[in-house]
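Q: I'm writing a short explainer about Metalloprotease PmbA for a general audience and would like to include a description of its predicted shape. Could you first generate the structure from this sequence?
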Amino acid sequence: MRDLSMPSAVIAAGDADLNPAAELDRLGAIAAEVIARARGAGASAAEVSASVQTGLNVNVRMGEVETIEHTRDRGFSLTVYFGQRKGSASTADLKPASIAATLEHACAIARHTESDAAAGLADAALMATQFPDLDLWHPWPLSVEDAVLLAQRCESAGLEIAGIANSEGASVGSGSALEVYANSHGFFGREHATQHSLSCALIAGNGADGMQRDYWWDSARAQEDLMDAAALGRRAAERTLARLGARTLGTRTCKVLFTPDTARSLLGHLVGAVSGGALYRRASFLLDQIGQSLFPAHINIIERPRLPRGPASATFDAEGVATREQPLIENGVLGRYVLGSYSARKLGLSSTANAGGVRNLILEPGALDFAQMLDAMGSGLVVTELMGQGVNTVTGDYSRGAAGYWVEHGVIAYPVEEVTIASNLRAMFAGIEAVGRDLDARGGLMTPSLLIGAMTVAGAD
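A: Of course. Here's the predicted structure. Afterward I'll give you a sentence or two in plain language.
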């Protein structure tokens, strides 16, 4: 068998504190060397992803430290192609012997795999050539002591609110990721980004009168963009207290208002249904729907992958294809699918630069604030929490457990729990009557509140 050993000077994996430029250079050297050796071993094409991630996460409960977690994870994955036969292997160890074994395993897999006409690198013409700074790197020099104090401050602010009886804890997290992707087209891409988070979960009430739990959280690329810790704790407390005295409902058909954090899941179901894997397997209720009206004409959903400080921003996708701003839904009409190169070839289409998923997909907000959304609803259910996985992407049937608030004449009347909301996603998309202006930008799927004209709500009876 061909000697696939690696020179140790290239892959020396020191444990010193992370230096972004030096670490990216090191990962890049590994990627270039492995691709060259894969070609030398007979591969017609190859691609490599290598990463180093570091992080600190601290959890406190009732003022006491529960966990302190330091992470430093390495990842290396290699895919080789022998014609249209593909082999992939990965390791979490960047030592020379581990990478040599990974290369050997990938080549062995490819030699014994059936040929697949859709297999191969993304088209060379689609590779990214410009790499603007997206302002994603904001290290937070957070000591364990400071993280503990911040989490305690967050939790304490919530516990000080009258009626809060207990806590499930508060957490503070800070992490960074350095990643390199390279392939035998000659593409070489480097990314470095940070992500910081804060969360708090509280409990109100007692066993006799009923207990309720709720939480709040925030996440940002830069520490200064996070919500103030004390304000976040108070927000978690307010949400928890508002759920006391929750009732169930009798079965009915009514309007349903999804808050931004629950509306995000609807956008996720849309993405799942228009993603290449579901489509070429013919396992989607939105098969062959490009050019069709799925939403009312006032709905626009656009992907902005190069949004500065965006939670999912990137200049290239997982295959090196250049990302670009592009609509998914325009004036209610489905304009494209969500495709990487493999699914695109299976469908006879081109990659949409979505290998690895969508990046900052935004349902454009409307003009109404939340009070105006309640007024537009009149009477109905506000959904603040969803439970269960009752969504069928093949048929579009939708049924999930929910909690929230019943609204009468545009005013919240009382909290609601233990209900199930049901419909079909196609009807739900088409039935969006109003869109709020309260865009939730904390994740790669960004939505405001959404008012749906009619759903079945099943409760106690």
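A: For your explainer, you could say: The two ends are 70 Å apart (CA to CA).
Q: Perfect, that's easy to follow.
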